[in-house]
Write a structure and sequence with these properties.
The complex is a heterodimer of chains A (about 325) and B (about 500). Chain A has about 325 residues and is mostly helical. Chain A has a domain at about 100-315: MetI-like (MetI-like fold, Orthogonal Bundle). In chain A, about 80% of the residues lie in helices and about 0% in strands. Chain A has helices at about 5-30, 35-40, 50-60, 65-80, 90-125, 130-145, 150-165, 180-215, 215-225, 230-265, 270-280, 285-315, 315-320. In chain A, α5 crosses α8. Chain B has about 500 residues and is of the alpha+beta class. Chain B has helices at about 1-20, 55-60, 110-120, 160, 175-180, 225-235, 245-255, 280-290, 295-300, 330-340, 360-375, 385-395, 410-420, 425-430, 435-445, 450-465; strands spanning about 35-40, 65-70, 75, 80-85, 90-95, 135-145, 145-150, 190-195, 200-205, 220, 240-245, 260-265, 265-270, 305-310, 345-355, 375-385, 400-405, 470-480, 485, 505. In chain B, strands 1, 8, 9, 10, 11, 12, 13, 14, 15, 16, 17 and 18 form a twelve-stranded mixed beta sheet that branches. Chain B has a four-stranded antiparallel beta sheet with strand order 4-5-7-6, with helices on one face. Chain B starts with a helix and ends with a strand. Classes of the chains: A mainly alpha (about 325), B alpha+beta (about 500). The interface between A and B is large, with 70 and 75 residues. Chain A: One of its GO terms (molecular function) is dipeptide transmembrane transporter activity. Chain A: InterPro entries: BPD_transp_1_N, MetI-like, MetI-like_sf. Chain A: It is a multi-pass membrane protein.
Chain lengths: ~325, ~500
Amino acid sequence: MIARHPLVRRVLEALATLIGVAVLVFVMLRAIPGDQVTASLGTEAAALTPAQRAALEAYYGLDQALPVQFLSWLGAVATGNLGASQRSGEPVLAMTASALPITLELAVLSLVIGLTLGVAAAMLSASRPNSARDAVGQAVGLAGLSVPAFLLGSALLALSARFLGYNPNAEQFTPITTDPWLHLQQLLMPALVLGFGLAAPIMRTARSALLEVHSQDYVRTARGKGVGPRRLVLRHVLPGALVPIVTMTGLQFGYLLGGAVVVEQIFSVPGIGRQVLLGIQQKEYAVVQSTVLVIALTFVLVNLATDLLYRLIDPRVRAS
Amino acid sequence: MRRTGAVVVAAAVLLTACSGGGGAPAGGTAQRGLVVGSTSDPDTLFPWKATQFQAVHVLEQLYGTLTELDANLEVVPGLAESWQVSGDGRTITMTLRENVAFADGSAFDSADAKASLDRIREEATGAVAAASLASVTAVDAPDPRTVVLTLSGPDAGILAALASVNLAMLPSDATEQGLQATPNGTGPFTLTQRTPNQSIVLAPNQRFWDGPPRLPSLEFRVIPDETSIVSAMQSGNVGFAVFDDPLVAQSAEGSGLSVTDTPQLSYHVLQLNTRQAPLDSLDVRLALQCAIDRQQVLDTAALGEGEVTGPITSPAYRSDPAARPCPQRDVEAAKRHLAAAGHAGGLTLSAIVSQGEYATSVNEATNIQAQLAEAGITLNLDVLESGAYVDRWVAADFQTAVALNGGRPDPDGMYGRYFTSTGNLNKVAGYSSPQLDALFAQGKATADPEARKAIYQQVSAELENNAAWIWLFTSFTYTATGADVTGFRPMANGSLKYLRETSVGGS
């Protein structure tokens, strides 16, 4: 009975998703050719004698059967122990605790930039559909969809370093507590790149939603009653168009976490995306497995939150 | 509403642009330290297991070795200030430097040297350079300043091998785990701070035996992307970097940085598995050699940045690149060899190619493929992710392999492990012969440099005449430095040893 409650069902679904992710990541990591030994030694691994190789495999814990490795990892995770990096000996939990807030901050900043740019452009476009202004807005949106983050990021970095002599990302990454201003500068360029990519789909969704709302009866009624254009948009049109925009934004959060991998690499931001990338390159099983799990958890939570938000802003969903 | 959007865009742009003027803290006004841009954090700080370039670059600042190499890759004293080789070549007696201390202040003596060498030779340690000490049968420490190596036979290459940071001297009571956290070596620098995946800061070792380095601090800063390093250098935050990609080097040079090319010991090669048909036929291998124009591979795949090479790449023993059956491309000769091998109608081969491990691999492979096609040889490419490539390479599971192999200063260290029948990489090399076994044994047993050169010329000829592999070219590495960085000397083995003589701003 309790399982029928929508919220409980959500949570159960989320748990199932996480276990699925755990199994997938574990299997995929091991399906990739090359283990930790060859990842760290490269072609020098060919020079190892069997005894040397066995010693290294025991060191990395690769001598145990796969199910044993999986269960002991899962058991440890359940008790909050995410394992430790083989390279630095640092607990993955501590690494994640310092990397995740940076990525989340980057994501929120990008979201703000993306929403502001996207909604603003949509309002410009939708206010006069099929005009020159609309065409320009749509073209910029298309560019945002088509220009890959690595290109935009590299170009931005190169141009600003070359012509302004300005590159905050060449400094060591500064925590917000040490120097908030420098910290913000270091996140601003990557957030602009991610936000620009995000603005495009938001703009397209928002534009069609706004156009649809514009043609609704209640808007026409309001306009007939003599509501001014500014008030019309803010009080009547925008709230009506919010549902698709929020849905879109929630979905795009996954894009943000994925895009963070590329952007964090280019701008040397020590976030969760770079942690995964480095882990994969070094075949750091514990790091990759646990970090991906944390990312999946974040994603699941954000989707849950989007769902709830959705219920809040759209009475129709609440009723059903 | 129209205004709001425009204001946001303008504000974002302004925020980025304005801070260029005043807001950003200037990277190097007061300090005279050097920041080295590095694409990756070291994967280990344990010197005996480090093979990754970035790890070696850091560790050679922190650890000392018994011998060292100078800028010409000649062996010079390191922690051993002198050595004597007995008449029969079976005993090397080394005299250690006095007053050498580890970073923690404890003294370095022969007990540490003996413990280090003994543990490297133990298989359980997993030390990657264990094979370099294969000829060592015993290590003795008769007094604190003397180390005696007893060898199973003469080994002229061992002195150069001892210069590798993989044979670094560690305190006799050090553990791998302890050193990962707190490096403790006798090198020119000591570790002051490490932020994993971000930065490693070193300070000069005031008690370094060759005098403390000039730099007040040396930082290896992780900036994962090579083009981002270039922009970091343009903005003045980073003063030193080493690049492999000629395109990146060109962009660095184009933006006013000073860039030095250094030919490398590592070499690009088409490896052949001669143990299986059809490559067990000398005619087939010669057909490949004759069909490939190495200069064309170099020009198309690497922008011409490099030098055509024969097997041995170290300056002192360098092979003559023209000394091979087909020094120039000769498609007719290739077809004659194919016909002689019974493949007049053509032949199909496969090649493994690594993607992403180095910049030029796939371009090399496609150029070779096109050239071979003109001689009637179809080359199918297996382009693999680097982990998959290494797995197949290590298992010798290929017909041919487009490879970039690391070189060594001494030709025995470089090829003995590949081309002798008992070499630990012989399975991967796919070729050995009694002649080569004899020549390598002779080379090891000969101390006289001129006589050794003659022997390794024969080795080179043996490899080329039998087309054991098709050697292609050596590339450059590019050392980019900011305007006020002086005193660094690049080395062909990629070592950053001379950071200890580098200074910033002529201080």
